[in-house]
Amino acid sequence: MLRQCHHEFSRNKAPGIDKVTKDKYEENLLENTTRLHESLKKMAYKPQAVRRVYIPKQGSNQKRPLGIPAYEDKIVQLAVSKVLSSIYEQDFLDCSYGFRPGRSAHDALRRLNDIIMTKKINWVVDADISGFFEHVDHDWMMKCLGVRIKDSKLLRIIARMLKAGIMEEGKIKASLEGTLQGGNISPILANIYLHYVLDLWFEKVAKKQFKGRAYMVRYGDDFVCCFQYEAETKRFYQLLAERLKKFNLNLAERQRAR
Hints:
Blueprint: H1 2-8, H2 22-26, H3 29-41, E1 50-56, E2 63-68, H4 71-88, H5 105-118, E3 123-128, H6 132-135, H7 138-148, H8 152-162, E4 166-168, E5 171-173, H9 186-206, E6 214-219, E7 222-227, H10 230-246
Parallel strand pairs: 1-4
Antiparallel strand pairs: 1-2, 3-7, 4-5, 6-7
Helix pairs in contact: 1-4, 4-9, 7-8, 7-9
């Protein structure tokens, strides 16, 4: 599986702090993956710090932090993400569209269009969590994973990934929170986190407090909630802010009900 993950990477990806490229790793692929496999089995594997760079953020003059793991860590992250996907894909709700096999942003937009045009919907909350990937709480993340995963070794490997550290301007900083965008494991971890923090809460708790129709469409950390009544829309917005605060998250200030 580790060798399969290696073959899935393109050759033009930027290297991490180890400066190892796919071509370089491939020179001794069998030896390298065998050694990596043994280190994982013996729990000797320790991921290197992630190299942080900044890229332009679409639609604003701000920049988005991007994490570039070392090459071997990319392989392990992809392998673990495949394991997590096989576990959680059957659990994820239909309202979730981002970073999932067979689902795209276009599918999310089609669903949203169907809700607005054919359901009894008059009010919409267009929501975005402020700096979501940088503020994922590690303790809550591990609690979420612990609901479905009982393999302590796998949980420890994921915890090490979260705590690997960040290299920026030549200095390594501790990773106290967050799962940096750019890592192969970040998308599935984001979906698992928001599955418990947002999706299940919306379906099992929030919706039951409203008399009118209510729907949600989520793509990654961006989501749109649709409501029949104005009062229930505004009430939901308050409940949402309280819910996110429990997990050390906040809504971006630009959001409003309309």
